[in-house]
Amino acid sequence: MSRQGKTWNYIGMIAVVAMGLYALPKLRVGEGASLPTLFAIAWLAFALIILAAHLHRLLHVDEAKQKELARIRRMRKWQQQQWMTGQKRKMM
Fold first, then answer.
1. Residues 14, 50: one domain?
2. For residue 21, what are the domain limits?
């Protein structure tokens, strides 16, 4: 990940935490099953999803997946080249 990408992830995390700290005292959660409570729960859920996405990118959780996809793309390109030149494919 580039340095600029990491910076944007840190800025995004700081923004989500700041919004959460600002909004949390104003959200009405303990009023039973009312519209303000449902809104508060939905808002908090979205904020947590966004925070988790930024952490996911910063911790490089999907790095192995990207390497595997790159390997598959290289193999497909090789197979297409073999087919175009008329050579037999190797079975793996």
1. yes
2. 3-61
- How much is the pTM? 0.59
Q: Total domain count for the chain? A: 2
Pair 57, 5: CB distance under 8 Å: yes
Tokens of 42: 């939905």
Distance CA 84, CA 27 (A): 62
- % of the chain with per-residue pLDDT over 70: 91
How would you write 64-78 as a 3-class SS string? HHHHHHHHHHHHHHH
How far, in Å, CA of 59 to CA of 26, rounded?
A: 31
75 and 31 within one domain: no
